[in-house]
Amino acid sequence: MSLVDLDGVAYKGHEPVDHAASSLAAAREAGMRLVFVTNNASREPEQVAAQLTDLDIPTEPGDVMTAAQAAAALLATRLAPGATVLVIGGAGLRTAVRAQGFEIVGSADDRPDAVVQGFSPELGWSDLAEAAYAVQGGAWHVASNRDMSLPQARGMAPGNGTLVAAVVSATGVEPESAGKPEPTMYRLACERAGVEEALVIGDRLDTDLAGARAGGYPGLHVLTGVSSARDAILAEPGLRPHFVGKDLRALNEPHPEPEPAGDGWWRCRDGAARVVDGRLELAATSGAAPAGGGSSTREATIDTVRAACGAAWSAVDDGVELDESSVPEIVVTD
């Protein structure tokens, strides 16, 4: 089974991501089950499924796991059915909270047992202020996720983490989070599907892939969203993907493992990289001249990116201080 992120992987805002629909269809034809797991808590699973279906990715509501569902499940670990909850978020979050048997209240004056906060584009200052008043009054603060940004067709927009930070700034109280990078949603999705193992697919190292590492799941990082190839090369151990692909076509392709090849080089098919005196060098083939560099943009194959990850991670783990200015932004060629 694969746990597939949405924003930046299957679509960007309301626009499709190149090769997403055909690649997911091919995976399903090969027998892979797909569950779409999103940190977005504003919409109902039915709405998410409808959007995917409209983008030629046929999806049922039961194939969707949202941060709203995970947040409601987190509330249930401490609160009994009938507890009062102030919901700061969209319809999807309200539905998930009701499904857990909680009573939704509309004001901090109702002395709620908890505040649960999820993204909704309609939220305003008065909503955030109400959350702050409730938290100051002793309510347990739960966030569906803490993504600081949200990929949209026009660029990056403020995410739920930005709105949560406003409440934290006002109260000084850090919330508990149900969304990625916590592995809660991954575990819930696996439990619902009756499986123990799954591949996590995402575009953000700090949420999707960190959650995979935290939950003990292998993770595939696709370069169609937030985190770049350069980000992967520079990733700390807890953020490192197990696999890297240009886009979702990687779901149906072999992933050769980069290996040390002597003289400091790491190779992955025709891609090669090494770290010399703390600086990353890239070479397209074994016969190519090494290319050290600044942080300018380079074109390279995905195998070069994989080799660079192997070389950089090995060097850093051996105590080498990697000069980040030697790692270029990489435009991955087909």
From TrEMBL:
Q: May I ask which residue range the UniProt record assigns to the signal sequence?
A: none
The record's SUPFAM superfamilies line, in alphabetical order, gives: HAD-like (SSF56784)
Spell out the Pfam families in the cross-references: Hydrolase_6, Hydrolase_like
Question: Under which name does UniProt file this protein?
Answer: Haloacid dehalogenase
Q: Which InterPro entries match?
A: HAD-like_sf (IPR036412), HAD-SF_hydro_IA (IPR006439), HAD-SF_hydro_IIA (IPR006357), HAD_sf (IPR023214)
Tell me where on the tree of life, at the top rank, the source sits: Bacteria
Coiled-coil positions are none
